[in-house]
Amino acid sequence: MNAVAIFAGANSGAHPIYVESARELGRALAVANLRVVYGGAHVGVMGAVADGALDAGGEVVGVMPQFLVDREIAHLRLTELVVVKTMHERKAQMMNRGDAFIALPGGSGTLEEIFEAWTWSHVGLHPKACALFNVNEFYTPLVAFLRHTVAEGFVRQANLDDLIVEDDSERLIARLQNAPVPANRW
User: Fold this and answer.
1) Which domains, and CATH codes, for the chain?
2) Do 43 and 151 form a contact (C-beta atoms < 8 A)?
């Protein structure tokens, strides 16, 4: 594993721990010599993870559509900024450049991105691990709902078992590095 794609909110959230934990995760990824691939913004939780990695000497690749660059939210200290035309191109670049995926706290875009990556692993489009960084128990209600989808017969237990849920950045990275390849269980 050389690079981890991060899905994260462009907002900072209601509690300082979201930004603090994002910075810590970025630092931990840099220390582990893992390149960060993310949405390219300098704002919110996503900006914090980039800052943490950059401040620790890590490589950070941002992928951002031109319309967001035009809004002046692009991070200016990145190792590389890839400017694309559409959100779909952004996501495709991030999926291709990441060897694993982590969702930090965020909104609908973050959820859409991690769910797509996780679904693609179910159907065999990639063999990459997917994880939820459960800062401040942010994802605990979602995990409860996902257990409900298993109980109701819409998601296989094996697919849910493939989704890593962790609240500590170093344990999260270790679990990603040691994760078995998700099986095609469609």
Assistant:
1) 3-136+161-176 (3.40.50.450)
2) no
For 94, the enclosing helix (H) or strand (E) is helix 87-97
- Strands laid side by side in the 60-65 sheet: 80-84, 60-65, 35-38, 3-7, 100-103, 129-133, 163-166
Cα(148)–Cα(154) distance, integer angstroms: 9
| Range 21-52 burial, b when 16+ CB lie within 10 A, else e | bbbbbbbbbbebebbbbbbbbbebbbbbbbbb
Torsion of CA 127, 128, 129, 131, to 10 degrees: -140
Exposure string over 65-74, b if 16+ CB within 10 A, otherwise e: beebbeeebb
pLDDT in tens, the chain (186 residues): 999 999 999 999 999 999 999 999 999 999 999 999 999 999 999 999 999 999 999 999 999 999 999 998 999 999 999 999 999 999 999 999 999 999 999 999 999 999 999 999 989 899 999 999 999 999 999 999 999 999 999 999 999 999 999 999 999 999 999 988 776 555
